[in-house]
Amino acid sequence: SGGTGVKGAAVPSLAANLTGKPPVADKNFLSEGITALGATANRKFIAVAERCTDVAVTTLYDATTLRRKKVLISTEMAARDVLSLNFSNDGKFVLILGAGPDSVLTLWTTDRTPKPVAVLKLAMDR
């Protein structure tokens, strides 16, 4: 407990909280809190990673209007938490690191139709 997200709110909870509008993303994903945040160098986009019911969901927002632009859900990542995310200098890519014993590092495009362009599974030593 003590998470930063709105418990039980459907993704994207940030947009709902800041704009007062209902969530737009798939209502099957219930947010259990924000796990990572990031912004592009030019401050055009904000990325919010949230722990959800079954998966980790990263939502990209327009930093000026706070409107949801893209929702990134990796089928490769079994973890529900994103440990870290970072945009490329030009903002055209976002690198997302999932939590867990077998963490997954995914490089996404941020263009009109975002897609993973590289996936690396990392086995963590215990």
From TrEMBL:
Top-level taxon in the UniProt lineage: Eukaryota
Cross-referenced PANTHER family: CILIA- AND FLAGELLA-ASSOCIATED PROTEIN 57
Protein name: Cilia- and flagella-associated protein 43
Organism listed in the record: Octactis speculum
